[in-house]
Specification:
Length: about 375
């Protein structure tokens, strides 16, 4: 089915993204995977190309364009290229809204120009060794010391953790407040007591630096409180729909691309003297995946349109996230199987997609959490 959510401007932007990937990312990506981290230079290149801060107002160096369909274009093209290591979606679509919606005027002028130029790489530190989806389990604490907060604790699985110059930290500011006693504090590179642990060794997304972060008596200036004191829970809930849509967009694009690759492969690969595509079982497998992708694409595109219009609720975002990511996982497994032994070789795109995409059903809220959100909305 022909997609109807993009116009000529979006497609022109798509070509810009593809050119950027071909010139600045793909020639270096294999080395970045070996290094476990992308170069800082590619972040600055993304800034020069206008790929960072699309929704940030122009007065702070951004694109001033809040049309979420441009974010969808970036998610789709980076996924098709197999380059999740450069976490532009995290920077733009997850962290960007916190800075543009919650920051004071002084904070915006201090942080957003570098955010848009690629000089300032960002991260958000929520997950802890003993607290993932359960915000009430967060132990990192910040004690009010008058002119500053004294921050102590640790975080783990933090994307951009090694490169980040600016980290939004979820910390407990009112111990007895539970989930409603949390605040967002911005910790900047070089702050005394802020240390990074190892770059974690993952099964996929090897070029994406994912780290442990440690805070030992870190003095965070009062002017680095982001949003309302003890307002982190509400702030996080308000921004999670966009985060989950970003994951859903990448997931369905990943499934579609794997289907394209595998469809071509079974046409060319022979078994028992004829192409695999001539076997009924193979045709049924392709037919099933194609139908599942088409149905999912229709729903996700509707969610993209609704979100661009400010009409998407967190329940439908949760539906999109869990359904699209579980589809991506199924399609990756089935496509790898159809590639046979070659599918297990990392030189084949399907093998890398299998490991790169496995995290999709976990981060941004697990599939189980998505179902709980949806169930509560229906059953109370």
């Amino acid at each position: 089915m022909q997609r109807r959510i993009f116009d000529a401007d979006h497609e022109a932007f798509r070509e810009t993204v593809r050119t950027f990937l071909a010139k600045e990312v793909l020639p270096h990506y294999e080395q970045w995977e070996k290094d476990g981290i992308v170069s800082r230079g590619v972040w600055r290149a993304a800034g020069r190309q206008g790929l960072l801060g699309l929704a940030v107002p122009e007065e702070y160096g951004g694109g001033g364009n809040t049309d979420f369909r441009y974010a969808a274009v970036i998610a789709e093209e980076f996924t098709r290229a197999g380059t999740p290591g450069l976490a532009i979606g995290l920077h733009n679509d997850i962290i960007g809204p916190y800075l543009t919606n919650l920051a004071t005027e002084e904070q915006k002028r201090r942080w957003l120009p570098g955010f848009c130029s690629g000089e300032t790489v960002t991260a958000i530190a929520m997950t802890e060794p003993g607290a993932g989806s359960d915000l009430q389990g967060i132990r990192t604490s910040a004690e009010d010391r008058g002119d500053h907060w004294l921050l102590n604790g640790s975080k783990t699985f933090i994307s951009n953790g090694i490169l980040a110059d600016l980290v939004i930290v979820v910390a407990k500011t009112t111990p007895e407040g539970g989930a409603h006693g949390l605040s967002l504090l911005v910790v900047e590179r070089g702050t005394e007591g802020f240390e990074r642990g190892r770059n974690l060794d993952k099964i996929g997304q090897k070029a994406q630096d994912t780290a442990e972060l440690f805070f030992h008596d870190v003095r965070v200036p009062k002017e680095n409180l982001l949003g309302e004191l003890n307002g982190a829970f509400v702030h996080l809930m308000n921004h999670l729909a966009q985060e989950r849509m970003g994951i859903a967009m990448a997931a369905v694009a990943g499934a579609e691309h794997l289907l394209e690759i595998t469809t071509q492969y079974v046409k060319e690969r022979e078994a028992f003297g004829r192409p695999l595509a001539k076997l009924q079982h193979i045709r049924f497998e392709i037919a099933e995946m194609a139908t599942e992708c088409a149905v999912t694409r229709t729903f996700v595109d509707r969610c993209i349109t609704d979100h661009s219009a400010g009409e998407l609720d967190h329940v439908h975002a949760s539906m999109a996230k869990w359904w699209a990511t579980e589809l991506q996982k199924r399609v990756a497994d089935r496509c790898l199987q159809l590639h046979g032994g070659y599918g297990y070789m990392t030189e084949y795109r399907v093998a890398r997609a299998f490991t790169d995409g496995r995290i999709q059903t976990i981060y941004g809220g697990t599939t189980e959490i998505m179902k709980e959100i949806i169930g509560r909305s229906l059953l109370g």
